[in-house]
Amino acid sequence: MSDDSQHSAPDLGMGRPHPARIYDYLLGGKDNFPPDRAAAEQGLAAAPDVRDIALANRRFLVRVVRHLAGLGVRQFLDVGTGFPTSPNVHEIAGEDSRVVYVDIDPVVVNHGRALLAKRAGVRMLEGDLREPEAVLAEAGELLDLGEPVALLVVSVTHNVTDAEDPAGILARYMKALAPGSYLAVSQMASDVSPERSAALADVAARQRTTLLPRTHAEVLSQFGGLELLEPGLVQVPLWHPDEQEKGVDLSRVWTYGGVALKA
Ligand SMILES: C[S@@+](CC[C@H](N)C(=O)[O-])C[C@H]1O[C@@H](n2cnc3c(N)ncnc32)[C@H](O)[C@@H]1O
């Protein structure tokens, strides 16, 4: 099978690696195909920390949702959600919450829909982070966009190029969302373990996938000047750590994460 850009919708692109399916393999899931496994193994060979990063990132997401639910947030828009992984946002956020999951990968969307079909207050959409107005219009069929929403963009902006302007994209979402909304972002760092992140970026470039680790200042700019909650933008194990983060080797978890409030 060749590049799926040459095919219409039914081609699920199983002939080449996809970020969601590589990530699923790293998390120990079964929703991946040979090109994804090969790409993940090449990534692991170049940067063995990648699996630590995936797991720490997922734990960060869980703590973020728990924290925001504790602050009273009842609406979540999780863009670049990945394959359903338990616990997922709706399981953490509570039964009275509304959750919209969005992913660009049709295989992720099919799985999500199959699993979530009967869940009240939960929807799975196929959409592109880089098209904020379209995503918000569809998400607004379930979410009340006049009320605060937590926008979760966790481990996705490193799949967006500088030319596509991740900060500008996120600013368009936050401009549209009500005051009291939150923005959570995590993305791979280029300045924590520079040789290893550069090695992974090289592998990704050879696989023709976009994976761009960025500096602390570059990731911070994705919040567009919004006020960050304590402890700011930090390596993800340092964001409101619980017992599981004790003893984590920070040199192996080169991913930044933070949460900001739209006042
Ligand atoms: C590394 S996974 C992160 C999954 C989840 N957010 C987490 O942190 O556990 C990245 C996900 O973003 C999705 N993705 C990549 N680019 C995207 C885009 N432009 N719009 C929507 N989803 C995108 C991929 O398909 C994949 O499922």
Automatic annotation (TrEMBL):
InterPro entries: SAM-dependent_MTases_sf, SAM_dep_MeTrfase_SAV2177_type. The lineage of its organism: Bacteria, Bacillati, Actinomycetota, Actinomycetes, Streptosporangiales. This is S-adenosyl methyltransferase. CDD domains: AdoMet_MTases (cd02440). It holds the Pfam family Methyltransf_19.
